[in-house]
Write the structure tokens for this entry.
Amino acid sequence: MKIGLRGGHSPYCKGAMGILDEQAEVRKIYTELKPMLEAKGHAVIDCNSNANNVNAELAEGTNKANANNCDVYYTLHMNASKDGSGNGVECWMYDASNEDMNQIADQICKNFKSKGYYNRGKKFNAGYHDLRESAMPAMIIETMFCDNAGDAGRYGSLTAKGIAQLIAEGIDKKAVSGATDVSKPRPENSIVPGAGGLKELGKVDIYSAGFTDRWWPEVKNATDWVGAGDGLPLRYLGFRVTKGSIKVRVYTEASGWLPYIIFGQSYNTNDLDNGVVGDGSPIQAIEMEYLTPAGYKYKYVKYCVSDINNTSFYPTQVDNQRGGGQDGYAGVIGVAADKLIAEIV
Ligand SMILES: [Zn+2]
């Protein structure tokens, strides 16, 4: 099998920073994994990028996989939850249609679980560049949370080589040996609604701020909409929540989907790169996911937008859920959004 393989991000355009530096560590995992896959008889195409911006490094990866006619494309990442409460492994695919890929994703997650990582399981998203722009079946392996002490500790003892082994065996649909389930995982955002033993989080307020040609006063929950509201596109957005955190990304006219930013109890309008979402061009779509603190019953964000051509709002989106009339984000790609409403329920 010809495998396109890539450690996420670039040394000149870093990924998540926690206890571990995501980009630096996944590149180490890549370096260990490549010869392991080759020893199993696979050809491995180096799809890494050293580009200096997100669009360029993402495009370089999928372009290399596509140009080499790879049979499958894997990218290695580490997650982050900002407050350090998220943990575990998850594998993202475009959709659930490829049975082989489903089995590989399950096996990789099980192999991580056998070493104490929480198994967050398979997830699907048709919007992620790696999954959308690859001409072959693709998988984003979010190996662990780089800002979680437990995950980082397990990484420290397993090392990049140990992690690479879990993935290499998973790709061949093989379990790893010496499995011991040692951890007491904290399922941060995979909590089953109403599951026993989970506490009620209580009311969570979200405050949203929007920039059109100026910053507008922040709006609490769904008491009002964010923005100027009269045909002026939203260009930047900032959010803060009173508990937990919220993961947000926007699709802009200039750049398409921008990287996720996780907001806790603050945003920063003085830091247009990392303190808010947006790039200054009109925002067309927004994806939001509420990250419930560990040990509490799952809550989610309900949000909707209106576009510059209409006064009415599109249907409400819940987190990044798909199906049932939801497409995983609010807004319409190709049309600027001018109003947003969000609340945590
Ligand atoms: Zn990443």
